[in-house]
């Protein structure tokens, strides 16, 4: 049976969730789960870690929801929490190797799939090797399509600082990807 | 291959960084006429496009969140919010205790199944006012209704459905189902 999807704005659901209605928060989790998991996956490079980060991020959001003052959008606020959770997770797992990341939902032919997986893994490894501050800016720009201003809000830095981080990330990735060809 | 280095200029004077941003972020060229005719820019753009194509391919891949992520989050939240309230059905053979949150879930799902309800949010008080002590429940529902639905009829239908479901599944006595329509919105059916 198909489930109902509410088209109410995030702000309406946030207001209800702030009043303690977990059902409204459930709608927010359903709505943002792919975004949160995808960001965690690109930041950590590991499916299991990303799963933990996504879960912890939502629980952290629920715990601190009453502090959310709507000075930014709920999405921006959520991205900030994901980045913080990923930071904490990577700090505690610094010495662990990066697992292979499954490319879910992508099912081309067997040969092209193998090539694509190899390519994806190579790119992901190069991204994960970036310093975290560059990686966050790069992931939010390239994979989440955030504007420089939105990234600045998420990371609590200036748009110029975002430009600087992206510039350094591009330089590093140009060298890494170019050296592998 | 030696990739074009950022922070350098091509013989035509174009900044490689400018071209790199254009390719990486897929932004329009700053000087399209020049780029269309300049061999240095065209060569650099071609090289950068090949170099960055795996990144773009990765960005376009679908990512599916783990199927149980939402449920795990909800379970954790429920644990955080659990207040310990419960309704009790006393019997000769022993008591049956049912946590109010269980009643809340049943009530919410029942209300949610009624056409015209977009989102039902339930609160439950145990052992109040009427009926055997510990066996009676009052369900309070706040809901967002679909725009255009006749609200009194929706409320009546929800009250009936919730009372029937809770009684059938728990054996508890539903004293009242109070419905507050707190918002109307447009809704769709989907996965």
Biggest β-sheet strands, sense, barrel of chain B: 3 strands, mixed
Low-confidence stretches of chain B: 126-133
The percent range for strand residues of chain B is 15-25%
Assembly type: heterodimer
Task: Describe what this molecule looks like in 3D.
The complex is a heterodimer of chains A (181) and B (191). Chain A has helices at residues 10-18, 22-44, 47-63, 74-92, 110-128, 132-142, 148-155, 159-179; one strand spanning 3-6. With 181 residues, chain A is an all-alpha fold. Chain A has two domains: 8-99, Rna Polymerase Sigma Factor, Chain: A, CATH 1.10.1740.10; 108-181, Arc Repressor Mutant, subunit A, CATH 1.10.10. Chain A is globular and about 55 Å long. Chain B is α+β, with helices and mostly antiparallel strands. Chain B folds into two domains: 16-60, no CATH class; 97-185, Cation efflux protein, cytoplasmic domain (Alpha-Beta Plaits, 2-Layer Sandwich). Chain B has helices at residues 16-24, 32-37, 39-60, 69-81, 100-112, 151-170; strands spanning 86-89, 96-99, 117-126, 136-146, 173-185, 187-190. In chain B, helix 1 runs parallel beside helix 3 and helix 5 packs across helix 6 (151-170). The longest helix of chain B is centred in the first third of the chain and has 22 residues, at 39-60. Chain B is elongated, with a radius of gyration of 31 Å. Chains A and B meet through strand 1, helix 2, helix 3, helix 5 and helix 8 of A and helix 1, helix 3, helix 4, strand 3 and strand 6 of B.
């Amino acid at each position: 049976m198909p489930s109902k999807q509410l088209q109410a704005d995030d702000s309406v659901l946030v207001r209800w969730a702030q009043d303690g209605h977990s059902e409204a928060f459930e709608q927010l989790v359903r709505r943002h789960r792919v975004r949160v998991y995808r960001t965690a996956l690109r930041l950590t490079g590991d499916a299991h870690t990303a799963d933990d980060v996504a879960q912890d991020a939502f629980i952290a959001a629920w715990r601190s929801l009453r502090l959310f003052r709507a000075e930014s959008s709920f999405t921006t606020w959520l991205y900030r929490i994901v980045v913080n959770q990923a930071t904490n997770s990577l700090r505690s797992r610094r010495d662990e190797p990066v697992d292979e990341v499954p490319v879910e939902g992508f099912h081309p032919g067997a040969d092209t799939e193998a090539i694509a997986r190899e390519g994806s893994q190579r790119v992901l490894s190069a991204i994960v090797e970036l310093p975290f501050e560059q990686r966050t800016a790069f992931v939010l720009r390239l994979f989440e399509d955030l504007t420089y201003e939105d990234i600045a809000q998420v990371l609590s830095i200036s748009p110029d600082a975002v430009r600087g981080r992206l510039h350094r990330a591009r330089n590093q990735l140009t060298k890494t990807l170019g050296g592998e060809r | 291959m030696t990739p074009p280095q950022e922070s350098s200029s091509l013989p035509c004077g174009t900044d490689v960084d400018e071209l790199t941003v254009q390719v990486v972020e897929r932004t329009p060229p700053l000087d399209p006429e020049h780029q269309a005719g300049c061999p240095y820019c065209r060569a650099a753009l071609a090289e950068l496009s090949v170099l960055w194509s795996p990144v773009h391919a990765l960005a376009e891949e679908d990512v599916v969140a783990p199927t149980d992520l939402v449920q795990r989050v909800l379970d954790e939240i429920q644990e955080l919010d659990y207040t310990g309230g419960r309704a009790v059905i006393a019997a000769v053979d022993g008591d049956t205790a049912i946590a109010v949150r269980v009643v809340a879930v049943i009530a919410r799902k029942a209300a949610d199944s009624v056409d015209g309800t977009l989102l039902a949010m339930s609160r439950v008080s145990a052992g109040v006012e009427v009926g055997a002590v510990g066996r009676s429940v009052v369900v309070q529902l706040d809901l967002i209704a679909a725009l255009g639905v006749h609200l009194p009829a929706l409320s009546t239908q929800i009250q009936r459905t919730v009372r029937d479901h809770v009684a059938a599944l728990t054996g508890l006595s539903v004293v009242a189902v109070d419905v507050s329509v707190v918002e109307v919105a447009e809704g769709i059916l989907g996965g």
